[in-house]
Design goal:
about 350 residues, Arc Repressor Mutant, subunit A, five-stranded mixed β-sheet, two-stranded antiparallel sheet
């Protein structure tokens, strides 16, 4: 499972709201996730493992095997942020589906959408790219409900001529499928797909707002770009610290520079199996060793360059990085150069 995958907290907040109506507390839903009500208010994203834990808690506490269908039925497209807004304001049905194909990484980074045309069928195929463990079915059911919602929103009527193909066994709660979905359902299929009549592909969206669509589309593009930055955030922090050695940026200042909270920065780096201090040590160790090898700058001057007010603190840090003092390192490197 990819450890860098993150998801919006909005999905979890909706589950909490729904179960709170049944007397189940947020603390119960978040048990074992290292999340709190406060952290959900402060952060925009959670990790995939946390998401899975919450989903499994939700199923257990609700005692409802069809909880995925229930949650999906109450998810308005706007819950999916700019992706949802762009979809329901797309010019045509195919434009709406293409939004999910192009920007699924923004909201559901472990689902790949493939659009196919076979004969008179317009097919939407969903493929999971990560292991969601026991939460697999719940999430898939919720996403299928979302797609049905958007398709019917544009059609203006139930999608009775469509067909849903599930690549799973017939569940014990199959009657719930017939209740929630408005088309024939086939289990034990080779792929997870929604089949639509090809004639629906270019159905115009009477509810489309060109202005909202353009804004939402730009937000999708920006979110996708930001997601790519988040995936490589450890590299960007390394570069940022390297360019600001003398200022010795703190965790707080670095988080502000990237427009996120310190808590979010800590979590994202943890997802990449590193930490702010580890990156900072790597930057300072590399730069300090480079200065000592290639220049005659004094140790005291180096300590100033690296933002240390006391040279003794710089010497202690250097010894922690390399096991020897800066002076010993310089002498060692000088001897190596003489031999070559």
């Amino acid at each position: 499972m990819s450890q860098s995958i993150i998801l919006p907290v909005s999905y979890i907040q909706i589950a909490i709201r729904e179960l709170s109506n049944k007397g189940i507390t947020a603390e119960q839903i978040l048990e074992g996730t290292e999340l709190s009500v406060h952290s959900l208010q402060e952060d925009d994203y959670i990790s995939l493992d946390q998401f899975i834990s919450v989903i499994l808690n939700t199923r257990k506490l609700s005692n409802n095997p069809a909880i995925g269908l229930l949650l999906g039925s109450i998810l308005h497209p706007s819950t999916h942020g700019s992706v949802g807004w762009a979809a329901i304001n797309s010019p045509t049905l195919s434009d709406a589906i293409n939004i999910f194909q192009r920007y699924s990484q923004v909201r559901t980074p472990f689902i790949l959408y493939t659009i196919l045309t076979q004969g008179d069928q317009y097919i939407i195929r969903l493929t999971l790219t990560d292991n969601l463990k026991a939460a697999h079915t719940i999430f898939i059911e919720a996403m299928l409900m979302l797609l049905q919602h958007i398709i019917e929103f544009i059609l203006g009527r139930p999608m009775t001529e469509a067909s849903l193909y599930m690549n799973s066994y017939t569940p014990s709660y199959v009657d719930s499928y017939r209740q929630y979905f408005h088309c024939p359902i086939h289990f034990n299929s080779g792929h997870l797909e929604i089949h639509l009549p090809l004639s629906w592909k270019d159905t115009p969206n009477p509810n489309a707002d060109k202005h909202i669509y353009q804004i939402a589309l730009e937000q999708c593009q920006e979110a996708h770009h930001q997601l790519q930055r988040n995936v490589n955030i450890s590299t960007e922090i390394y570069d940022y610290l390297s360019a600001n050695l003398s200022h010795s940026p703190t965790l707080k200042h670095t988080a502000m520079h990237f427009g996120i909270t310190p808590r979010t920065l800590i979590r994202r780096l943890k997802d990449q199996h590193t930490s702010f201090q580890k990156i900072k040590d790597d930057v300072y160790a590399f730069q300090a060793s480079s200065y000592l090898r290639r220049s005659t700058i004094t140790i005291d001057t180096l300590s100033v360059i690296f933002g240390y007010s006391d040279p003794a603190n710089f010497r202690r840090s250097f010894k922690r990085w390399f096991g020897i003092s800066p002076q010993e390192y310089r002498e060692q490197q000088t001897e190596i150069l003489k031999k070559h």
